[in-house]
Amino acid sequence: MNSKKDLVGLLIHDLRGPLAVVSTSANALLNKAERYGPLTVNQRRVLERILRNAHKSQVFIEDMLEIYRAEENLFHRDLFSVSAPLRESLLEALEIVAPQALESLCLENQKEVEDLFESEGISIEIRGRYCESPFCHDRKKLQQILRNLISNGLKYRRKRIRIDVTGEEDLFISVEDDGSGIAPELQEIVFKRFVRLENGNQGEVQGVGLGLSGVKLLVETMGGEIRLESSQGAGARFTVRIPPLSMEDGKGGRVPR
Known about the structure:
- By secondary structure, the protein is α+β, with helices and mostly antiparallel strands.
- The chain has helices at residues 4-31, 33-36, 41-71, 83-97, 110-119, 139-156, 211-221; strands at 74-76, 78-80, 122-126, 135-137, 161-166, 171-177, 198-199, 203-204, 225-230, 236-242, 252-254.
- The chain has 2 domains: 1-72; 77-254, 2-Layer Sandwich (Heat Shock Protein 90).
- A hairpin with a 3-residue loop joins strand 7 (198-199) and strand 8 (203-204).
- Helix 1 packs antiparallel against helix 3 (41-71) and helix 3 runs parallel beside helix 7 (211-221).
- The radius of gyration is 19 Å and the shape is globular.
């Protein structure tokens, strides 16, 4: 081990086990009353809170692992419909930002899911080639990019966010919110680690400040770019461009930069 990055990689790897134990134990207590006994309303509420926060921590660890792999230029080639990771990212972001919205949701009921998105002020449009044709790249990394941009938009919105997916060759994704916007002098620093801006309505937004810096790193190591358009009081729009990978070199390994 010859650097801080090696130590961080080991710590991230070693945290996965204890978090999995916490999640499994809380799930068992919640769902196996015949073995562990019935729960009171308050006990169930506390266990559900433990489970939600364990899941948030697991998501954060997985995000860090993907960033670590991206820094090593390691990618997995997948061929997939963009709508699938987009839907999963939306649900994951809502679970982080507004967990109560998913409490009674049936994920298999597409109409319920669409109604939830509408009630949360989320509009989606997919146009161009990737409306029907599959996209080739690392699905987990794309899903991490989507989840972070969407959760960021949900945190800073006033009432709505809009997600647009377009492209004929490169994939373009934009996430726009109607929040208080970002002043020009702050637009560079939002991509730095540990930076958090204040929401005009809610004060400082909770989080560790790694989201947008991680998104930028992932997008750039995937051969793309990220752009921010915003002004004070007029919302913000983040747009990423990601070129597809060729499937010719196999399903995994290093991707040339």
